[in-house]
Structures are given as C-alpha cells and as structure tokens.
Design brief:
By secondary structure, the protein is mostly helical. The chain has helices spanning 8-11, 15-36, 41-69, 76-101, 107-133.
Length: 138
C-alpha cells in the first residue's frame, strides 16, 4: 500500500475475475439447491432457474456498473447501485411469490434455499460493486 492507497491491481475487478467468482457462486448455489436440502426435483429445477436469473442479473449489473464507474457524473454509479438492489430484491420476491401461487411450488421447499441463493449472489454483487466503485477514470 503506497501513499495514495492500495495498488490498482488489488482493487480492480477485471472481467476474468468477475466471471470466475460468478461461476463459483453458481456452483455453490447449485449445491445448496441440490445437496443441502432434501426437496423434490420440481423445486430443484426452480432453484436452478433462480440461480441462472441471478447470474444474468449480475452480468448486466457488472456491465452497466463498469461503464458508470468511468462516468464523470459522480452520482451515476450510486444511482445504478441503488436501482439494481431495489430491482433485484423486488424481482426476487415477485418470482418466489409467482412460483408458489401460480406455478404450485411448495413454499416449505423453496423459500429457505431461495433465500440462501439470494444471499450468495447479493454478497457477491456487493463485493464486485465495491471493487468497481474504486476504479479510477481512464
């Protein structure tokens, strides 16, 4: 750590690192849905689809946030962060309620594993957004 703070290599969230950790989150969420809980195949399928949703959501947020971190508008990144958190939590609740009420999934089987999966991807999203927010303008 120099006088100006940590070196850029330690802070920077590059694409390779992002996708590697995202892949690990997907694997970990698959393990939660398929190994940690004894649930029916139908519920395992739902949890897998939920993981894929979070994966694509994370990719979109990463791409948008990477561009916003380079903007001269100091508030753009914060606005994108807040919108992504609100959108993600709202969509998560909507998807779970839809799965229970309209698609007939057993709430006892999917709520707790879905919350674990949501937590995994939310922690990761917070981590990579913190790293992106420290990137300097090119």
């Amino acid at each position: 750590m120099g006088l100006c703070g940590p070196s850029k290599d330690k802070i920077r969230m590059n694409r390779t690192k992002f996708f590697l950790f995202l892949f690990l989150c997907v694997i970990f969420s698959w393990l939660i849905g398929n190994v940690m809980f004894t649930i029916q195949e139908k519920s395992k399928f739902f949890l897998s689809i939920l993981s894929v949703f979070f994966m694509f959501f994370g990719i979109v947020v990463y791409e948008i946030s990477s561009r916003a971190s380079q903007s001269k508008n100091l508030y753009l990144f914060s606005q994108i962060f807040l919108i992504s958190v609100l959108l993600k939590s709202t969509l998560f609740v909507f998807i779970v309620i839809l799965a229970i009420r309209k698609l007939g999934y057993d709430k006892k089987e999917i709520i707790i594993p879905a919350l674990f999966i949501y937590l995994i991807f939310t922690i990761y999203e917070t981590y990579f957004l913190m790293k992106i927010s420290h990137q300097k303008l090119s």
